[in-house]
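User: Predict the complex with NAP.
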Amino acid sequence: MKTVLITGATVNTGYGIAKKFASKNWNVVITGRDIDRVPAAAERLQNEYPDVTVLGYVLNAVRPDNTIDEEAVTNLFSDLDRKGLFVECLVLNAANLGIRQRIFENPLSDFINVLHTNVTLNYLLIETAARRMKEEKNGSVVFINSNTAYRAIPDRIAYCTSKGAQLSMMRALALDLGKYNIRVNAVLPGMIKTDRWESNYNDCKNAPSNFTPLGDIAEFADIADAVWYFAAHARNTTGAELAVDGGNMIQLYPIIPE
Ligand SMILES: NC(=O)c1ccc[n+]([C@@H]2O[C@H](COP(=O)([O-])OP(=O)(O)OC[C@H]3O[C@@H](n4cnc5c(N)ncnc54)[C@H](OP(=O)(O)O)[C@@H]3O)[C@@H](O)[C@H]2O)c1
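Assistant: Here is the predicted structure with NAP placed in the model:
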């Protein structure tokens, strides 16, 4: 049975992606930073999909002083090795959203934390996973990126920067890892119906990113389907981007409905 590892997957999009893979009979490894939420989410998923192995790991590898806990990543993969699980697909979903970080107000450490969480830690995870994929001559890495890699939104400089950097890293990795049959691709969501969207519906419904040519924003399953395409079908595709944003990004400006 194949195994996927999804970061930041105790709630929202990551959990939706985990459900998709479990429903397709893949073993699922989820990570999160919270010592209570991780086992609870893993148990919920395991109960729903009793035929696959579900494992939850607490991974909190960007320390408060913005150094990276490399050992935590090594230990996670060593434990999976001991359990005989080879991560054939790595989904980099966890992100510091860097909300309301303002250029003249936030300390540099806030910017660095976003970059380390969204870029540096992902690089380390890929390096560690790709060592195993290289041995197997098989593997797939999928970034959950964002259409903000191309179109900026206010007070999110670090976040937009990190999403742009993810795409450059994706292409460089696709180039270097292709010879080992490791594919590296990115899904670019626009707005997603997360618990934040549900709880701030009145704010969200007026946000420009809500106005798409298709007239709707993404559900978790839409993002999960795109990840599944890269993981399970896209045999000859690497370094590619798949926007799942209702067409939001193709507009010069959103057409606000009357
Ligand atoms: N929501 C949207 O509208 C939207 C739009 C475009 C792109 N995206 C992208 O889609 C992915 C998932 O989005 P989402 O809204 O579903 O995510 P989310 O629930 O806000 O975050 C996903 C997980 O990332 C982890 N995380 C959050 N802040 C972190 C931090 N400072 N350091 C380390 N981990 C942190 C959290 O896991 P723990 O707390 O369990 O550690 C969280 O559950 C992200 O990569 C996001 O950039 C989302």
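Strands lie at 3-6, 27-32, 54-58, 87-92, 139-144, 182-189, 241-244.
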